[in-house]
Specification:
Layout (H helix, E strand, L loop, with lengths): L2 H34 L9 H4 L2 H22 L4
Length: 77
């Protein structure tokens, strides 16, 4: 008597999980397409993009990239 209720509940739960994961994948794909088209990420704020912490982090990433390129080219720093 409980078996149909358990099966129905499991089916609803699995369906909800598939829908949530599909929605998350869809949003990720849309965000990827926005980035490919040159648009800014929807979560980014224009004020935050110019904050000192962001600029410092960007400079740090650029320096690490220069170091990695030098290592790849065999240049000692």
């Amino acid at each position: 008597m409980m078996l149909p209720l358990i099966l129905a509940s499991a089916f609803v739960l699995v369906t909800a999980m598939v829908c949530v994961s599909g929605l998350k994948a869809w949003r990720g794909w849309l965000e990827l397409k926005r980035l490919q088209l040159g648009g800014a990420p929807s979560a980014a704020n224009d004020d935050d993009a110019e904050s000192p912490a962001t600029l410092i982090e960007l400079a740090s990433v650029k320096e690490r990239l220069r170091r990695l390129e030098a290592i790849a080219n065999g240049v000692e720093l």
